[in-house]
Amino acid sequence: MVYVVFNELSVKLEINKITSSEVARKVMNDFIDFLRELKKIVKGVITFDAFYELKITTGYGINEWLKDPAVEQRRKQLFRTFLNASCKCVDKNDYLDGEFKVRINEEKQNALGCQIAISRNEQTVISINTNHLWRVNQIEGEYSRLDDTGQIIISEESMENLSKIEHLTKLATKIKEDRFNRITSGHDLWEEREKLFPDLVFCERVKDDLYTNPEKHHILPVMKRLERLQSYFSTYNGIYMPEELGFDARTESETVRNSDLKRFRKFRMPDGSEAYFFDHISYTGKFPDGRIHFRVEKGICYVGYIGRHLPTPKHKT
Questions:
Q1: How are beta strands 3-6 and 124-126 bridged, if at all?
Q2: Given pLDDT bands bounded at 50, 70 and 90, which one contains residue 106?
Q3: Segments making up each domain of the chain, as ranges
Q4: Model confidence over 197-242: pLDDT tens digits?
Q5: Nearest to 30 by CA among 38, 42, 41, 19
Q6: Adjacency order of strands within the sheet including 300-307
Q7: Model pTM?
Q8: Which residues lie closer than 8 Å to 304 by C-beta, 6 or more apart?
Q9: 139 backbone dihedrals φ, ψ, rounded to 5°
Q10: How far is CA 158 from CA 47, 92, 100, 119, 141, in A?
Q11: Which of 29, 127, 292, 301 could be a cystine partner for 7, CB 3.0 to 4.6 Å?
């Protein structure tokens, strides 16, 4: 996962448009709700000043918000937890080898958060909605730095900005695409399975399946099917509908389930117990008759097998 950098200009009093503590409270409440969703996507937020000292408007900032009796305790606790577990403070003196200037009201403002983001190759900042300027999905500016010869290089750059849920959706898609592009083998897929498919649980034997057939041309169609399983079970309502899942999802015939052939569908669950995995979808990779067998139990989708077509009365292996 990636870090994003806090845009300090979004709490600069001479820039923001917040004029009352009531509005400041709502802005902070919305920001905390936004952080909760952000944490599902990125590792955390980088800042360089103490968050507790930040002001949303004159006389009302983070400290006042935390003491405000009108603010729900759950939001305060969520914020404290986020600061302790997901907020990384860096020394701004380590990032003085360049400047990122943003034009605001005909003046160029130094945006240290953007400078840190571009220096760390994070390319993304998070803003508090104190001005319409911070509701856009990109912040444009003039980036200047010294090259290896000591000459000043100036270029126009843009920074991804996060302040709305729509921005998070776009970021999540980008991160997922980047992760998918980095998968080149079954080994990679096994190592990244929890990040790529957080709503699927993989049985241990799947590791052997992926390691036995690790080729990229084989893994790519497997990933497409797993991505569909992830999408379906991320919003699972407790009623499994194969036709809604798609990819010709189906279960084994009565002949298979009531014969000795069912033993080929029995796999060890993560808790050590054994269970039958009759539900499956097809894929074509290294061989033309690939199958992914899964089991839906107590609202969870367990993936138990990825490999060749298992034996049936008509299909022998």
A1: parallel
A2: confident
A3: 3-169, 183-307
A4: 999 999 999 999 999 999 999 999 999 999 999 999 999 989 999 9
A5: 38
A6: 200-202, 300-307, 290-297, 279-283
A7: 0.69
A8: 203, 205, 206, 267, 269, 275, 277, 293, 294, 295
A9: -115, 120
A10: 19, 21, 10, 13, 6
A11: 127
